[in-house]
Write a structure and sequence with these properties.
With 301 residues, this protein is of the alpha+beta class. Among the domains are: 34 residues; 143 residues, Butyryl-CoA Dehydrogenase, subunit A, domain 3, CATH 1.20.140. It is 62% helix and 13% strand. It is built from eight helices and six strands, in the order βββαββααβααααα. A four-stranded mixed β-sheet has the order 1-2-4-3, covered by helices on one side. Strands 5-6 form a two-stranded antiparallel sheet.
Length: 301
């Protein structure tokens, strides 16, 4: 059994901690991305904690666009603070405009309080408190990352189930194509002989020459190698799903190879006999399943 499961890159989680008159909340949101792309939203004055936050995310995640939002709020009666100097600046500007244009309307106090920077939190922690706060941020972030990974694993389980079902469909179609391909080979000789008799009328047809031409035609249309490689790619894909880890890029590569085999089968298959048409229909369905797998693989870490 694998020690860890395949993970999706989609997830959301948050964690919260309260202590000594303040509350800290960290929310994480991740979506698919070719590499690990971490975007931080921190309150003013928290820039010093950015390196440790980025490192913690890099230690736990490998791929995905990850939004990290940190909210810091003082708790209790001191949680709301009016920055009087900012409010005074707004009021002064409003008074100047009122006098300049001869306006009689008095400033709206409620509107002033809603202006940016007038109401905010109390002062940030002192330097002495910063280290303790940093440790709390790290602990809160680890909790949120743990929840995010659990959600990404859950999403990964759903992806594995859906992709495994598609792989079974591809395998079933490939086996059916293989059976039909065996039946198509004798048709090459019959079709060639019929066509030669139509062209030559009563002139005798050399059976040896017919057999030779039929063999060449059959060789050009043989899709056994493509079917064999397709089976091999499916088996490797299944092993990666079972083994988990950072499999997204490897899975994507295998799907490119599977698509190539399906395209080659289509280009080699004659579309005149019923069996040939059936092979074409099955190969097109294989291509469709591969495309759907590629969409799902884009979300695998």
């Amino acid at each position: 059994m694998p020690t860890h499961l395949l993970k999706s890159m989609t997830g959301y989680a948050q964690a919260r901690v309260e202590q000594d008159g303040w509350a800290l909340r960290i929310s994480l949101r991740s979506v698919n991305h070719r590499f690990l792309d971490v975007h931080l939203r921190l309150p003013d004055g928290f820039e010093a904690f950015e390196p440790r936050i980025r490192q913690a995310v890099r230690d736990r995640l490998r791929r995905g666009h990850v939004d990290v939002t940190l909210h810091y709020e003082p708790a209790g009666p001191a949680a709301v603070h009016v920055h009087r100097d900012v409010a005074a600046a707004y009021l002064g500007a409003a008074e100047e405009i009122r006098k300049q244009f001869g306006l009689k309307t008095e400033p709206d106090l409620a509107a002033i309080l809603r202006l940016p920077g007038v109401i905010g939190s109390t002062a940030l922690p002192s330097d002495e408190e910063a280290e303790a706060l940093g440790q709390r941020i790290s602990a809160c972030l680890e909790e949120a990352l743990g929840k995010l990974e659990e959600m990404r694993r859950a999403e990964g389980r759903h992806l594995v189930e859906e992709m495994s079902a598609r792989l079974r469909t591809i395998t079933e179609h490939a086996k059916r194509i293989e059976e039909l391909a065996e039946r198509v080979r004798p048709a090459y000789a019959h079709r060639l002989e019929t066509r030669l008799r139509e062209l030559m009328g009563t002139v005798p047809v050399d059976p040896a020459r017919v057999a030779q031409e039929a063999a060449l035609l059959a060789e050009r249309g043989d899709i056994c190698e493509e079917i064999s490689r397709l089976h091999s790619h499916v088996q490797q894909f299944e092993k990666l799903l079972a083994g988990a880890g950072e499999a997204g890029k490897k899975l994507d590569f295998l799907l490119q190879e599977m698509q190539r085999e399906a395209n080659t089968m289509l280009s080699k298959t004659p579309g005149v006999e019923a069996d040939g048409l059936a092979i074409t229909d099955l190969a097109l369905e294989v291509k469709s399943q591969i495309e759907k797998l590629r969409e799902q693989v884009q979300n695998v870490e």
